[in-house]
Amino acid sequence: NWPAATTGENRNNSTRFDYNLNNTLTWDYTIAQKHHFIATFVQEAEERRFWSDGMDAYNIQPSDALGFHYVNTATMANSAIRSNDTHETADALMARLFYSFDNRYMFTATIRRDGYSAFGASNPYAVFPSFGVAWNFKNEKWFNWDAMTTGKLRLSWGKNGNRTLEDPYVSLANLVNTGTMGYLDPSGKALEIKYLSLDRMANPNLVWEKTTSKNIGFDLGFLRDRITATLDFYRASTRDMIMSQSLPGFTGFSSIATNLGEVQNQGIELSINTLNMKKPNFEWRTSFGISYNENKIVSLYGNMVDIKDESGNVIGKKEGDDSANGWFIGRPITQIWDYKVTGIWQKDEWKEAQKYGQRPGDPKVANSYTADDVDAVDADGNPYKKAVYNEKDKQYLGNYNSPVQWSLRNDFKIYKNWDIGISMYSNVGGKSLDSNYMNTFNDSSLYKFNFNPYVNPYWTLDNPTNEWARLDAKGPAGTPVAPGRLYDRSFIRLDNISLAYTLPKDLLDKVHVKSIKIYASVQNVATWSASKEWKYFGDPETGGLATRQFNLGFNFQL
Q1: Residues 251, 285: contact at Cβ < 8 Å?
Q2: Chain mean position to CA 297
Q3: What 3-state DSSP class applies to 533?
Q4: Which one of 70, 303, 387, 503 is least enclosed by Cβ atoms within 10 Å?
């Protein structure tokens, strides 16, 4: 890419190289029509490389018409040279054996060995085994329930690895261009030299993040499989999580990428598919799915701390939490731990608000009144405890992630030519903190004018709402400028409505066209939020914009 510029030149060269090699060998054999064996062997290798260089030159003299061939006359203060080079490699070997007896008893065993260059030089490889058994009890001779057409019980255990890393060099030390420094050579001439520094510590022992899963499941079918269902109970434990661990200042680094802790997920998933109606000119199908997931931190850094009673006596030990990151043993990794806003100071509470350095219209923030609070005197000379906000005042308020999720889709076919689809989904139980109730919508440069460009019911003497603060509201001294308020992010979304029409085949045969389909759809049709106030803060699912999209298309097949 070599575009010309008005006052200079910009040149960029880049090359990307992706290489993938996959080989699969399968052996499938049946003995006496009852013993079925399938052996599968897989070999994989991949390599990705990207390198680029670029140069910016401005104010080329005497004229930019000289172009790239005279960039050394450019004003160097505005010029730059850039370069980048990344290289990743990975490989894997896998072997799997499947055995089935009489299509009733099934067994699968798999072992896989993966390697990835981004992990520490000492541990680039990891082995991941798994096995599963299944019992197709519907095929047993003694099972005589005619209404059930499919019945299978599944049990499985397996270990898997995660290699999703933001930086393929995260286990290595990294040099960065820190700046320039001046010095004098032996002759006394002043010179300038650029210097580099390390911005992270290497970790040659960084290993794969591993997840061990256990699963019990049922596959069921009724009425000739017009109703099918899948039910799964699972528990998954993730160990050796790749995290950024804080380091003491004397190391020269703020943190290091390392393997820490264990997080456990467990829950249940149910999916149901039904054929509700099937007529010559009408068909209706429904798909429904719902899941519930519990997440908790089992372990973090392994550092033990004392457990003390109310008198300060040590009564035991436990593994320490990481309050700086909001991680606590036994609680979800997405736990909300923060100050709790309980309401808005009203006009008859002005004296109490003064104790917190606030006035009516400001948010009330719960305080536990601990020994850290200090003695003070109010404007009338009355003594009181002045609240000092710290970690002891924070509370567990909820979970950012929604533990319950469900989806529903209905598909209709009319006269074999019309197809209609309607889908919706919901997240239930997710919470979020937001400080927009403090009326901080406007640009920071406009705060001094104390106005709000959004129409919302902010607090005034004539509108003493307990949900919205006054304009230019302030939090208590010692808390964030705009302490977040807790909102329920649960919602139901009518996600998609689609309509398609396929032209009759006998009509198309006359013009020698195989098929023509005309389709239209609307995405993000409607959203219902559990919190009325959340409409001011964007989409309840993402917190940003969720635009409604209209699509119209044609599909031709000759």
Answers
A1: no
A2: 17
A3: helix
A4: 303
Name the β-bridge partners of 175: 198
Strand positions, DSSP E, 353-490: 363-365, 374-377, 383-386, 395-399, 404-414, 418-428, 431-434, 485-488
* Digit-coded pLDDT (tens) for 315-342: 888 888 888 888 899 999 999 999 999 9
Number of other residues whose CB lies within 10 A of the CB of residue 507: 10
Question: What count of Cα atoms within 13 Å lies in the side-chain half-sphere of residue 286?
Answer: 10
CA distance 199 to 176: 7
- Per the CB < 8 A criterion, the answer to whether 94 and 145 are in contact is no
> CA separation (Å) from 29 to 43, 98, 103, 126?
22, 11, 14, 31
- One-letter amino acid of 528: W
- CB atoms under 10 Å from CB of 120, counted, come to 19
Q: Is the pLDDT of residue 123 over 80?
A: yes
Residue 20 amino acid letter: N
Residue whose pair of structure tokens reads 């990835």 in the numeric block: 116
In Å, what is the CA distance from 438 to each residue of 126, 132, 286, 347, 485?
50, 54, 44, 17, 9
Question: Phi and psi of 65, rounded to 5°?
Answer: -65, -20
Query: pLDDT value at position 233?
Result: 98
CA neighbor of 321 nearest in space, from 342, 310, 341, 335: 335
Name the DSSP class of 329.
B
C-beta separation of 96 from 109 below 8 A: yes
Distance CA 280, CA 297 (A): 55
The CA-based angle 204-208-209, given to 5 degrees, is 130
Q: CA–CA separation, 341 vs 397, rounded Å?
A: 10
Helix (H/G/I), strand (E/B), else coil: 354: helix
Backbone angles phi, psi at 137, to 5 degrees: -70, -20
Contact 182, 191 (CB under 8 A): yes
d(CA 181, CA 193): 6
Which tokens is 374 given?
A: 């200090």
Residue 53's contacts (CB-CB under 8 Å, 6 or more residues apart) are 12, 13, 14, 81, 82, 83, 84
Q: How far apart are CA 204 and CA 119, in angstroms?
A: 8
pLDDT beyond 60 at 65: no
Sign of the dihedral through C-alpha 329, 331, 337, 341: negative
Q: Residue range 387-392: average pLDDT?
A: 80
8 Å CB contact between 286 and 229: no
Burial class (CB in 10 A: 0-12, 13-18, 19+), 216: middle
pTM summary value: 0.80
Q: How far apart are CA 388 and CA 382, in angstroms?
A: 18
pLDDT in tens, 410-449: 999 998 899 999 999 999 999 999 888 887 655 445 445 5
